[in-house]
């Protein structure tokens, strides 16, 4: 069983930065596709970014492209989301998620449907004030 634990959320002013971390434990391997999602109150869960097995490729949603960067430290079994130039509309609960067996485009295409991801962290709150 894979366990995911997010950290790094908090409250910042618009234009500020945060770095989220997702620590993975249990059985993980290079077939694991990792993604970040966010969900604001009253809204559907939205895929934000994904990283391919092995960390060789990444994808970011248009809404965060150029501002958010997903990365991975395989030695630490940790995935990061660096968030710069934060906007109030970025305010949401952010979730780390994982699924197995998806490579390359098959990984980031899975962001379209959160049910494609089998393992989820507890979430970390990000609040951006104007």
Task: Characterize the structure shown.
It is globular and about 40 Å long. The longest helix has 5 residues, at 105-109. Strand 4 and strand 5 form a beta hairpin. With 130 residues, it is mainly beta. It is built from 1 helix and 11 strands. Helices cover 4% and strands 48% of the residues. The chain starts with a strand and ends with a strand. The model has no long low-confidence stretch (mean pLDDT 92). Strands 2, 4, 5, 6, 9, 10 and 11 form a 7-stranded mixed β-sheet that branches. It has one helix at residues 105-109; strands spanning 3-7, 10-13, 18-25, 32-39, 46-51, 58-60, 68-73, 78-83, 92-100, 119-120, 124-129.
